[in-house]
């Protein structure tokens, strides 16, 4: 029977390197400020072990990839109660890909903030009607994704990845990878009128997904 620590180690030491490559840095853990910025004062100390890994390009992937670790850790389930058919804790990890390594670590900061937000959603901090992230969600991120002289990508849309498995299995249950794609205001508005799925298809056609490139031109 796998302990929580075994599940954690399997994800970080076996699953992630197999999917995303051997060269990584991290883990860049959350801190109280990540939650305080979202209006949360009462923070479970266990949440401060959640964080983000940075994976360097590989022979089959020429991008830098960032992925959270902790949203699928079975913090609140005893090993005897693990259900491989159910989701493990929140049941998701967040991913973003960028063309080159961000000098100001914006990708790490963004995933830390959104992971904290998702944890609070899962614990009804914003009300019972606010659910954790799912595919197709559009989330405002302010000025988090921007390079000098470019149009700010002030939102992200969550897509189901096609270039790596969308779902992974742990002994404690399964979880989904929610792949983030940066979009600008006009693209957000277009998605409101036509759907996130339609926008993602358009972005893929024009090279705007799955990689988030702050230097790209708007597609809508």
Report Rg.
17 Å
Spell out the helices and strands N to C.
Answer: HEHEEEHEEEEHH
* Total of domains: 1
Q: Cα distance, first to last residue?
A: 51 Å
Q: What's the helix count?
A: 5
Percentage beta strand:
25-35%
Low-confidence stretches: none
Overall helicity: 25-40%
Tell me how many strands there are. 8
Structural class: alpha+beta
How many strands, what sense, and barrel or not for the largest sheet?
A: 8 strands, mixed
Q: Shape from CA axes?
A: globular
| Average of per-residue pLDDT values | 95
Q: Characterize the quaternary organization of these chains.
A: single chain
Pfam family, one: SUFU
Protein name: Suppressor of fused-like domain-containing protein
Domain Suppressor of fused-like: 48-217
Write up what this structure looks like:
- By secondary structure, the protein is an alpha+beta fold.
- The chain has one domain (4-206).
- The protein contains 5 helices and 8 strands; from the N terminus they run αβαβββαββββαα.
- Strands 1, 2, 3, 4, 5, 6, 7 and 8 form an 8-stranded mixed sheet that branches.
- Helix 4 (185-194) packs across helix 5.
- The model has no long low-confidence stretch (mean pLDDT 95).
